[in-house]
Fold these 4 entries.
Entry 1:
Amino acid sequence: MKHVLVTGGIGYIGSHTVVSLVEQGFHPVVVDDLRNSSPTILTAVGKLSNDLFTHISVDICDYKALKRVLSPFSLDAVIHFAAYKSVRESFDIPLHYYQNNLTGLMNVLELCQTFKIRKFVFSSSCTVYGSPNERQVFENTPKQLPESPYGFTKWMGEQILADFHRNPTPFQTICLRYFNPIGAHPSGLIGELSVGIPNNLVPYITQTAAGIRKHLTIFGNNYPTPDGTCIRDFIHVCDVADAHVSALKHVGTKPLEAFNIGTGKGTSVLDLVQTFMAVSGLDVPYRYGERRSGDVAEIFANVEKSKHELGWEAQRTLEQALRDAWNWEQRLQQHD
Ligand SMILES: NC(=O)c1ccc[n+]([C@@H]2O[C@H](COP(=O)([O-])OP(=O)(O)OC[C@H]3O[C@@H](n4cnc5c(N)ncnc54)[C@H](O)[C@@H]3O)[C@@H](O)[C@H]2O)c1
């Protein structure tokens, strides 16, 4: 297996994955129209991978164009990242989310049928567990209805894949359910881009440390957790990227499987902020706000299945992730 189609491969997780794939001898064929990335990230991915990948700018929702641009390639597998990802934004423009995330997925599946590509890795999310009764979730923890239109697109994405597998098909799929990817490449050349107010916690922390935001708001300090703030499973984005290489090597042993991609350890939001302050030596002014509807008090991954079956586990520490995130933020400021 060599040529891998990577949709959304210039985005946050995709760009780190393309670098890992090249390091492992794959040739990624990246389809990304950069709607949520930038030419600077594209250039940086080239630098980190000696330009050993192909990039094509096309909208995956345009099936005819997608088929046309990919027909010269002989593709062995697909990693499908391209989607919109903001929980908050998905409440404002739900149709855009359903349109891009579901039409995009169905087009890529159609393409797999047409080009006889048999291996597929899908970017799913721990959001498919909804508000689980257990704090630690296993892959067989019953899925629950998500809280946001974005969450529904991941939940439905998994359902579409399950239905696709109902007919006898030689197709094999792995759904990777990411927990909370954070951090950046240690080079500081690629990381998470935020247009306007960041949707995710770590870019908000680093922007506050950089003085771009006055203070950070922690949503809720009266949850039933030791310090009252929510507990999440934060994982270094390079570990998430490596999980895709393991998934590609593993895909094919069973028709359809899901794996949790987390560290297996819960960290509270307050702990995260304090760890950031400790590793950066900077102050991050924060205050507490109201709880956000739909936020569960605590969720973290059980990662035994990923460890034993994928042969993958997170290698990097929370401190490393936060140091890399801060390094990335400083580089961004230098270039602004
Ligand atoms: N980042 C997270 O915290 C997180 C958590 C769980 C799941 N996920 C999922 O992982 C995947 C990647 O997330 P990310 O954080 O890297 O997001 P991202 O927005 O940084 O990357 C997505 C990339 O896809 C591209 N794209 C989107 N729609 C496209 C289209 N129609 N045609 C061509 N390109 C298109 C964007 O330009 C972007 O570069 C998404 O499916 C997301 O839902 C992300």
Entry 2:
Amino acid sequence: MVKVLESLEVEVVGGRRVYRCLKCEHVLGPATEDYKNYALKHDAPFSKAQPIGLVIKSDMYVLREYYCPKCATMFEVDAVLKEEKQIHSIQLKK
Ligand SMILES: [Zn+2]
């Protein structure tokens, strides 16, 4: 087992390496791909992360949150431009 994020691990299941939720053991998908393709994705307004008074008055940025589709544990949050493509944050060595 390799822990790759707070609530995400890479585990061998049925002879192949997969991403698995550490909380509920839900298998997301093959570890050769970006786990984010299998996670629940939610774009939240950027103001969510900002202290009141320092809110960026712009909707150019979003907080892109990734959750386990089964137990809704949050894996990761990317602060990105709204139009930005998904950030491939975990790349396993072959
Ligand atoms: Zn889960």
Entry 3:
Amino acid sequence: MKRIKHILFAGALMAAAPAFASSETAMPYKFEPDTGNEASLQRGARNFMNYCSGCHSMRHMRYGRVGQDLGIPEDLMQANLMFTSKKPGDHILSAMPADAEQWFGKQPPDLTVETRMRGPEWVYNYLMTFYLDPSRPAGTNNLMLPGASMPHVLGELQGWQVMETAHAEEGAAAAEAHGGAHAGPGFTLVSKGSLDEKEYEKFVADTVNFMVYTAEPGRNGRISLGIKVMLYLLVLTGLFYLLKREFWKEVH
Ligand code: HEC
């Protein structure tokens, strides 16, 4: 009986976990992942390998599988995306030595299934909301993960922003007055990056799309299989209908 209670309790905790994660901090940006867009996934893979794999692994993912699934030829993959290994069969491991914890105060976590743990929208907001904070060792902080020990590695691209606390409230109030269409993040860019706002949003969207793919690499295959099965059933129904008419012709 006690055992069952424990199981029920664990179940309740697991069911509540996503709710906790999302209620902690309001997310200023809306995001819907799109893993059906192969070009976006390819750009996302490039972004991840160039800007993230130095610190973060995806140890449940192999280079070869990424190339195959996303239609990236092996030679291109090897020349442009494989920085930490030369064999397509290898897992995507970061270049980080084991003592990275001493550098950042925290080991950069493996990101293979990150979007399943935090949700794609959370990760999108995380990458959008690094802001300057001189009180932090790296000089930046993050709205979604206060006190984050990850530096703003995309600062060169996004530029550097400060959080306007007063504006954040005004922004939220204005957004509410307008039916919540735009929840003002309350950030002001103080130094431009190499990308403009739209380009940076696209960069982050591509990156998160790629991460959603790695968290569930079979997903697209399942969707297209589902469509094939539905088409097959439809065709079959049509054939049976014709067959039925053929059989009953004589009777009428
Ligand atoms: C210089 C090293 C470094 C680089 C490069 C880096 N990160 Fe991080 N990242 C970290 C560290 C360290 C943490 C742990 C932060 C903490 O918990 O305080 C982290 C945390 C994260 C988290 C939050 C994990 C969680 O759920 O708590 C996400 C998401 C993330 N990184 C994504 C990325 C992405 C995407 C990129 C590439 C655009 C990237 N990181 C590049 C060091 C890095």
Entry 4:
Amino acid sequence: MAGRLEGKVAIITGAAQGQGAHEARAFIAEGAKVMLTDVKDGVLDLARELGEAARGMKHDVSDEDQWNAVVAETLAAFGKVDILVNNAGIFAPGAVTETTKASYVAHFNVNQLGTFLGMKAVIPAMKANGGGSIINICSGAGQRGYPDMISYLSTKWAVRGMTKGTARELASFNIRVNSVHPGIIDTPMIGGTAGDAKLMKGIIASVPLGRIGTTEDVVEPVIYLASDASSYVTGAEMTMDGGTGL
Ligand SMILES: NC(=O)c1ccc[n+]([C@@H]2O[C@H](COP(=O)([O-])OP(=O)(O)OC[C@H]3O[C@@H](n4cnc5c(N)ncnc54)[C@H](O)[C@@H]3O)[C@@H](O)[C@H]2O)c1
């Protein structure tokens, strides 16, 4: 089924690789125009490769001025903003007593502050457009308590919470806000782990469906939340974790 995002304009952060890159490709295949952003230069190459329906920008999601520039560029290129996928993120493991303030603040800046600034930046354009869909990429680590990842876990619980509050705040403007909660997904974020056969065996053993996820497992729910098929869905949590959270 193609054309589910025909005529829509999306901003996807963290789109140089992993889930964000896959979402950008899939959104364009579904008929959307996409502004891809990332701190990495590779986002510009990918946007060029994707052609006329894509634009790319270097963008640090923790910088408010850069967010305003991304929205302005998107409006200049494509005329409106229908969809924001707040996907950029960083992850480093660490127990409470071993985590430095610098690591904690770094996670806050990208995962939590970046998500807040993104929502704030697109709301005026979405209001002017009569509505929109904001998709905050959260995590299973925003639904349960996991040890040894205090920085990441804190930010993802915050993202889950701000999704629900903002969904209530924006419902009367027809702006929907939902969160997506992947389990372990095979992307560069877990690249170090994939090479460790023993660790991977342990991780897979903890997943009822018996495998780690792929970016394809995440992209379908994201397309659904971005499309009009989910027009009555806001403040929801979409979980794709192979049953890990059961
Ligand atoms: N891979 C997993 O197992 C997993 C599980 C649950 C949730 N997630 C979440 O999914 C999202 C996508 O992660 P991924 O798995 O594709 O990881 P990834 O590391 O492959 O991609 C993350 C992207 O975000 C970009 N980024 C980092 N800091 C940024 C900043 N300040 N501004 C803009 N871009 C920045 C990176 O350059 C990278 O391209 C993240 O929010 C992550 O927390 C991942």
